[in-house]
Amino acid sequence: MIKVICAILEKQGHVLIAQRSKHMPEPLQWEFPGGKLEPNEQEQECLIREMQEELALAILPVTRLEPVVYTYPTKTILLIPYICRYVGGNVKLAEHQEYAWVLPQDLPSYDWCPADVPVVAQYLQLKQTAS
Ligand SMILES: Nc1nc2c([nH]c(=O)n2[C@H]2C[C@H](O)[C@@H](COP(=O)(O)OP(=O)(O)OP(=O)(O)O)O2)c(=O)[nH]1
């Protein structure tokens, strides 16, 4: 099973989401940016690296959410989400097609990678409980 770490990056009440390019697996679908955990890497370390490589952003992972297992036709992934705090940088796309800072309530209206759908639900649930 492939472990994928993803960031729910919060900044001024908005959340960063990214659209996969047509050359990536799961083309043109939206995701929480991140990537595969490498051997001998800590989850938070992986996320800090991926956010820097893919988006030129410095972030701090804060809260680990419940991981989601999802089976695609050719692979099974364990998607591990972290709510993250923005530290610095301006978005510079290296791999993605597009990005957007969206209000939490608008998250459900995007065409998500299927593995992310329960992550969005979990995040919104948590936000409701917190407020
Ligand atoms: N990064 C990320 N990947 C996701 C999410 N949801 C989801 O199903 N995936 C899938 C898409 C890919 O099949 C896989 C992650 O691969 P990736 O291509 O983003 O990771 P990577 O940058 O480390 O990969 P690579 O280019 O080194 O092969 O997980 C998500 O929210 N974020």
Give a verbal description of the structure.
By secondary structure, the chain is of the alpha+beta class. The protein has a single domain (2-125), classed as Nucleoside Triphosphate Pyrophosphohydrolase, CATH 3.90.79.10. It contains 2 helices and 8 strands. The protein has helices spanning 43-55, 117-130, and strands spanning 2-11, 14-19, 30-31, 34-36, 58-64, 68-72, 75-88, 98-102. Strands 1, 2, 3, 4, 5, 6, 7 and 8 form an 8-stranded mixed beta sheet that branches. A hairpin with a 2-residue loop joins strand 6 and strand 7 (75-88). The radius of gyration is 14 Å and the shape is globular. The termini are far apart. The mean pLDDT is 97. Bound molecules: 8-OXO-2'-deoxyguanosine-5'-triphosphate. The site of 8-OXO-2'-deoxyguanosine-5'-triphosphate has 16 residues, from strand 1, strand 4 and strand 7. 8-OXO-2'-deoxyguanosine-5'-triphosphate binds next to strand 1, strand 4 and strand 7.
Compact summary:
The protein has a single domain, classed as Nucleoside Triphosphate Pyrophosphohydrolase. Helices cover 21% and strands 40% of the residues.
Quaternary form: single chain
According to CATH, the homologous superfamily is Nucleoside Triphosphate Pyrophosphohydrolase
- Gyration radius (Cα, Å) is 14 Å
Ligand inventory reads: 8-OXO-2'-deoxyguanosine-5'-triphosphate
Mean pLDDT: 97
Largest sheet: 8 strands, mixed
- The backbone outline, from C-alpha atoms, is globular
H/E element sequence = EEEEHEEEEH
